[in-house]
Design a protein that fits this description.
This protein is of the alpha+beta class. It has helices at 55-58, 65-74, 100-107, 121-125, 166-178, 205-218, and strands spanning 31-47, 53-54, 130-137, 147-148, 151-160, 188-195, 198-199, 223-228.
Length: 244
């Protein structure tokens, strides 16, 4: 189903579309899902040495690839945890949503742990960008040795405002990373899969009918919510320049 509709769009033409797998913001509250955040993946990597070097003999001057990648990753967010990449769209969410207590319970946030970012929860998780490090190549703690890392790589998952093209957001993140030079060292940056988001028109007859039906069925006012677009599989590009 994910690949066939684009080959025959006329067969799937419709006056209205129902997103039926997101659920309600809480039990008993009629909820219409009106937006889906898009996504884009970006991979960054760096090779600084032909092979790992002893930290006692070379550490402090030999360029550590892992430190380079960590500095680049740290630049993606500000001190509050908000995304700090120019060109990513964010707006305040004006619909319904979970309370902070509900969000903490659903996300299983550890006791005493603060949430990151500023603004409403809706603007952070539905109508604003998010950048998550979903994979990183680094020496394992259990097998750590006293060596300066010659190579490091990380893959990012970027969640995109429902109305911003995913490719545009992906390019903004790649431009940010390519403009960095941690310790004077450039990064190799490559594009991964993308998936555009979706924002519905809610001023149509279909939505008027849906609001009336949902309110009558639940006996409560309808709220609107958002979610996430289907996620394409992560396919990291091959390692660019493996050390000898």
């Amino acid at each position: 189903l994910t690949t066939y509709p684009p080959t025959n769009p006329a067969m799937f033409a419709a006056d209205a579309m129902i997103i039926g797998d997101m659920g309600s913001v809480r039990p008993g509250v009629p909820t219409l899902t009106v937006a889906l955040r898009g996504m884009a993946n970006v991979t960054l990597e760096v090779t600084t040495l032909a092979s790992a070097k002893h930290s006692g003999q070379y550490g402090g001057a030999a360029p550590d690839a892992l430190l380079v990648v960590l500095h680049a990753l740290a630049s993606l967010h500000d001190a509050n945890g908000d995304v700090a990449v120019e060109g990513l769209r964010r707006e305040e969410w004006t619909g319904g949503g979970s309370t902070e207590e509900e969000f903490r319970a659903l996300a299983e946030v550890a006791d005493g742990m603060p949430l990151i970012g500023t603004g409403t929860l809706g603007s952070r998780v539905w109508s604003g960008p998010a950048i998550t490090v979903i994979g990183i190549d680094a020496p394992a703690v259990e097998t750590a040795v006293n060596g300066v890392s010659p190579y490091a790589r990380a893959v990012l998952n970027v969640r995109v405002h429902p109305e911003q093209p995913a490719a545009e957001a992906q390019e903004a993140v790649m431009r940010h990373l390519r403009g960095l030079r941690p310790f004077g060292i450039p990064l190799e940056v490559s594009a991964g899969p993308t998936g555009d988001g979706f924002a519905a028109r809610t001023d149509t007859a279909a939505y008027d009918a849906a609001r009336a039906a949902w309110s009558a069925a639940w006996g409560a006012p309808v709220v609107t919510a958002a979610g996430r677009a289907p996620t394409p599989p992560v396919r990291a590009p091959p390692r660019a320049a493996p050390p000898a």
